Amino acid sequence: GLVLWTVTLALEAALAGTLTLFIALAIPNPVIAILAAVGWYVLARLSGTLLGTAGIPGEGQEALMAPASGVDAGIWLDRGMYLVSLLLPRLDLMAQGDWLVHAPAITGMLALTVLQCIVHAGLIATAAFLDFRRRAF
Question: Domain tally for the chain?
């Protein structure tokens, strides 16, 4: 459990570090860059929770999500969260604390984590390349 947790924590830190470095270089204002990096990390870390609660109205939310003039806001919010989750890595699946106490059931979790990091590192590298070409040092 400790080895899997350590590997996924290192992958998560590497992914967050590369995106933070890209954001710091791409956005000239340091306050906005820090807020963007923290917002990305928090949203990526909470994406599993937000997906789990999407589409499940809680008590008292029926009136809040009621269709207004034929538009169902709940469906659009669910679809929007699903689209956002496609662009973000699922950091909630990495470095889970219960892996340190209980033996993790490794059912492709490490492969999924590595694949997810490779895909998002490729996206970050592509964005960095396009930003580098745009600036034309």
Answer: 1
Tell whether 90 is covered by a domain: yes
Average pLDDT over residues 25-53: 88
The answer to the question of residue 126 being in a domain is: yes
Tell me, yes or no, whether 25 lies in a domain: yes
Select from 54, 111, 122 the least CA-distant residue to 84. 54
Distance of CA 87 to the CA centre of its chain: 7
Kindly report the backbone phi and psi dihedral angles of residue 7, in degrees, each rounded to the nearest multiple of 5, phi listed first: -65, -45
Domain assignment present for 69: no
Give the 3-state DSSP-derived string for 40-80, with helices as H, strands as E and coil as C: HHHHHHHHHHHHHHCCCCCCCHHHHCCCECCECHHHHHHHH
CA dist 91 and 95 (Å) reads: 8
Taking only the tens place, the pLDDT of each residue in 83-110 is 877 788 888 878 777 777 877 766 677 7
